[in-house]
Specification:
mainly alpha
Length: 189
């Protein structure tokens, strides 16, 4: 043994000689260990089981992390990360600088996208009647969570079906939902 190890053993032996151990305390400790042996065995089994689980799952987690890093790299390469960051910056500026009412008022005034969409699908200039339908569709969508059908626009919106066909010729449900910036109604072909 090295001199350091020898010195450590000597110090340990000296400390044990100096310690006064009550035989009753030693007996009680032995009884406690004996009484809890089943619990200790159970804990050892659980620890072994957890070790096996970690050993089995570690390669799967490693592969998942590797795939996530690869996918994140691809998304960054394609510009998604920069786009999302810029989008979050825009949303942050809107949230911090405008009230809910300001945003709702702005949304009500945004007619240019609808004009462009109407031109692209052959409707031409949007009239007040077109805007009445578009406004109803957007409002109803917020309330119902889905795009209103022709029947709902006629019944609830109070716009006759004949007028809808005149305003949005050939495929009125599809065209009016397009101009409103919504998905086509369920059941629309």
């Amino acid at each position: 043994m090295t001199p350091i190890a020898m010195r450590a053993v000597e110090q340990s032996a000296y400390a044990l000689d100096e310690a006064r151990i009550d035989p009753i305390d030693l007996f009680l400790l032995a009884v406690r260990v004996a009484n809890n042996s089943k619990l200790l065995d159970s804990m050892v089994i659980q620890l072994e089981s957890m070790h096996e689980l970690i050993t089995d799952i570690a390669p799967i987690i490693g592969r998942g992390v590797e795939l996530a890093i690869t996918k994140a790299g691809e998304l960054e390469e394609r510009g998604y990360i920069d786009f999302a960051t810029a989008g979050i910056g825009v949303v942050d500026r809107i949230v911090t600088n405008f009230s809910k009412e300001d945003v709702e008022a702005l949304a009500g005034k945004m007619r240019d996208p609808a004009k462009t969409l109407a031109t692209n699908i052959g409707i031409g200039e949007l009239t007040d009647d077109h805007w009445k339908v578009t406004t109803f569709l957007r409002s109803d969508f917020q309330d119902q969570g889905e795009t209103a059908t022709l029947r709902r626009v006629a019944t609830i919106g109070g716009i006759p079906t004949k007028s809808l066909f005149q305003l949005f010729p050939k495929k009125p449900a599809r065209k009016m939902s397009c101009v409103a910036g919504l998905q086509k109604p369920k059941g629309c072909i």
